[in-house]
Amino acid sequence: MRSFLPLQMEVIEKTMKYALIGCGRISVNHIAAAQANKLDIVAISDVLPEKMDEKREKFALSDTTKSYADYKKMLAKEKPELVAICTESGKHAAIALDCIDVGTNVIIEKPIALSLSDADEIINRARQHGVKVCTSHQNRFNKSIQKIREAVEQERFGKMFYGTAHIRWCRDENYYKQASWRGTWEQDGGALMNQCIHNIDLLRWMMGDEVVEVVGMTDKLNHPYLECEDLGVALVKFKNGSYGIIEGTTDVYPKNLEETLYLFGEKGTVKAGGSSVNKIEAWQFADGKDEEAKVIDEFHETPPNVYGFGHTPLYADMIDAIKNNREPYVNAEAGKRALEMVLAIYKSAAEGKPVKLPLESVSTMDFEGRFGKKEERGGKQ
Fold it and tell me: I need a labelling partner for 132 at 20 to 30 A (CA). Which of 227, 311, 343, 376 fits?
């Protein structure tokens, strides 16, 4: 498994035609990453014109960047080489397949889809059409995470015992009022699928990727206006004999507290913390190759929000993957594995028993009505 080395990216000789579908909350990170990588932003698309106007003004997009309410017309007319999909989660798969079918490479915001069958279709059809698919798990590109991944690949931990992922965040009613699709089974999922999937992805990736069993519990404690969970906890058994613990919530008062990742091995202990695992806070290894204080000082970032700085290197890697006909660092299979972990927790929680992996076919819609409808709880749409 190679490590990501952004400074070794090939210099881009030809500007690549790029378009964005979905101009909501996360789109600003994608446009900024596209501009930083000198992509030719030929179009943006959203069903709400005001969203497109807002992004045009914020990023001073020129008249050569067209606006489209219909992304299919945009694909046909502009023929972008790379598209980023930043719509509500429930539309990711259908839009991705439309892009893939016309030979366009895609970056899909997490989660890659809301069902395993849709994720599989994305993977299979991308192979058929020879296009690249990247899942936007940008925290893999954090300086802290890259340093930890290097230690994993060098086997500095020895035998891995267990790892833990904690996501202790706050999302209030105002956040959900901004977009009615949030917190619904059809278009989103709950805290685990939306806010926590990044760290769940990191835990699975660091612990060897192969999971054999998951035990989960979920609940809705403080968001009666949602359909889905605001708290999820899980125990994970990995194929290599190690274990994982997941704790994710949007119930923390009054604001985001932390996102942490711990790894405990026979010969090493590591903690990444901060608002979005962007700081190494503990670094102890038996081999003595580096000093803890120096590592903590060097691998420390303070991003302005929980999205971090990972989108720009993620884009750089995807561009390089397209130009050199290789798999992106965070490919569609990685996106499917993160999705499977969340769906496994949902399934275990709903059935009240452990579930074995791999899962055959599971979707967020399998859990519709589990906590009651929003209107039944007196909440607002």
Answer: 343
Q: What is the pTM of this model?
A: 0.94
Q: Kindly report the CA angle at 289 between 286 and 292, in degrees rounded to 5?
A: 80
pLDDT per residue, tens digit, the chain (381 aa), is 344 544 344 444 558 999 999 999 999 999 999 999 999 999 999 999 999 999 999 999 999 999 999 999 999 999 999 999 999 999 999 999 999 999 999 999 999 999 999 999 999 999 999 999 999 999 999 999 999 999 999 999 999 999 999 999 999 999 999 999 999 999 999 999 999 999 999 999 999 999 999 999 999 999 999 999 999 999 999 999 999 999 999 999 999 999 999 999 999 999 999 988 999 999 999 999 999 999 999 999 987 777 778 999 999 999 999 999 999 999 999 999 999 999 999 999 999 999 999 999 999 999 999 998 654 434 332
Same topology, domains 6-139+310-331 and 140-305+338-377? Answer is: no
140-305+338-377: CATH class:
alpha beta
Task: Measure the CA–CA gap between 284 and 289, rounded to whole angstroms.
Answer: 10
Domain extent listing, the chain: 6-139+310-331, 140-305+338-377
CB atoms under 10 Å from CB of 177, counted, come to: 12
Burial class (CB in 10 A: 0-12, 13-18, 19+), 7: exposed
